[in-house]
Each structure stands twice: as structure tokens, then as C-alpha cells.
Design a protein that fits this description.
This protein is of the alpha/beta class and 204 residues long. It has two domains: 71 residues, TusA-like domain (Translation Initiation Factor IF3, 2-Layer Sandwich); 111 residues, Hypothetical Protein Ychn, Chain: A. The protein is 33% helix and 27% strand. The longest helix has 16 residues. The termini are far apart.
């Protein structure tokens, strides 16, 4: 059978795996299925999918947001019963909540505070265990909107399964609701409930 290439760049989980499964099924017999994605979590999920079907699989990083996953489709292999693709990696620590209540860290010079907050979010994104949820409220709402210097780090964490929520009332107050660039909108009831149920709360 002819080889196939699936371009899943820009697709949210679980679409890369869903499209790969459909392409593999359509191939019927054997061949090389190449899937193009733009994040490492998609690579992990596709590798797990290949494992459920006993496909040989290899991946290669072509660029910062350019990955190629190649799997050898074998129609005769006994496929294991597939579970729904998981979007959250093992790195996400259940019950850990990071609370960003300002766009600065600490008291004192605002410029320094913003620099410290940027460094905090960057460091948070590099931890082996990421928080399950990040809550942003008051001026912390600016961190998730257009112009934030932390957007890339926050988007990377979101891609790895971290839930990012920003206070809707806060965005309305500052007039930035239309500028939300990562995560979703939440309310005070959910903010209280999430913190009340948290196993650990991180505050910069």
C-alpha cells in the first residue's frame, strides 16, 4: 500500500491521534504513516497509539515546533483495544494549583516585579511536575492576554495538559476580555472551589 502523510500541526488533542488512526485504517495493509505535529505531547500520544497497535514507531524533532512521527503500519498485527487518547501528560501533578493574583511578583519596584513574575512562570513551565491548574485574577489577568511576555510559557504548559483559567470579572474591569490569548474564563465560585479542593497551592 502507498505511504501516507498526515499534517496535524495546529490541531488540539486528541485530533492528531484521531487523524492518525483514520489514516492507518485507510491504509489497510502495510506502509509508512508519517504524522507532522507541533508539540511534544502530540508526539507522546502518537507513540502510545502506535504501541497499542504494535507498530514500529520513531520520532524526530525538525525544529522548535516541528516534529515528525513515523510509524510502520502492519495490517496483520493484532491491535490492542485502544483507549481514548489521553491529552494530559504524566508531568501534570493532580491537585496542585498555581495562583497568579498579580502581574508582578513581590512588593517594590514594578519593573522588577514584572521581571520576577516572568521568571517565575518560565521556571514553573520547566518543572518536572506541572500544576494541574493555574488561576489568574486581579492584575494577574494581564498575564494571559495579548502583550503578555509569558504567553509562550503559558501556552506550552496548556499544551501539556495544564488548565489555565482567568477571572472574567477582572478582565471586564480592565477592559481586556477580548484580548484573552490562552486558557479559558472562570468566575469567583470556581476560583474558591478549585483552591478549596487543592492539595497544594503555589503563590509567587
Amino acid at each position: 500500500m502507498a505511504d501516507k502523510v498526515v499534517d496535524a500541526r495546529g490541531m488540539a488533542c486528541p485530533l492528531p491521534v484521531v487523524n492518525a488512526k483514520q489514516a492507518a485504517d485507510a491504509m489497510g495493509g502495510s506502509g509508512i504513516l508519517t504524522v507532522l505535529v507541533d508539540n511534544e505531547i502530540a508526539v507522546q500520544n502518537l507513540t502510545k497509539f502506535a504501541g497499542t497497535r504494535n507498530y514500529e514507531v520513531a520520532s524526530e524533532k525538525k525544529g522548535e515546533k516541528d516534529f515528525e512521527v513515523r510509524m510502520k503500519v502492519t495490517g496483520g498485527a493484532a491491535a490492542a483495544e485502544e483507549e481514548a487518547p489521553a491529552c494530559a501528560p504524566d508531568a501534570v501533578r493532580k491537585g496542585i494549583v498555581a495562583v497568579l493574583s498579580a502581574n508582578t511578583m513581590g512588593l517594590g519596584e514594578e519593573k522588577l516585579g514584572k521581571s520576577l513574575m516572568k521568571a517565575f512562570i518560565f521556571a514553573l513551565s520547566k518543572q518536572d511536575e506541572l500544576p494541574e491548574t493555574i488561576l489568574c485574577y486581579n492584575s494577574g489577568a494581564f498575564l494571559t492576554t495579548e502583550g503578555s511576555e509569558s504567553l509562550e510559557d503559558l501556552k506550552n504548559m496548556e499544551a501539556e495538559g495544564v488548565k489555565i483559567l482567568t477571572c472574567g470579572t477582572c478582565m471586564d474591569f480592565y477592559g481586556i476580555k477580548e484580548k484573552l490569548s490562552v486558557g479559558g474564563v472562570t468566575n469567583m465560585y470556581d476560583i474558591v472551589e478549585i483552591q478549596e479542593k487543592a492539595a497544594k497551592i503555589l503563590r509567587p
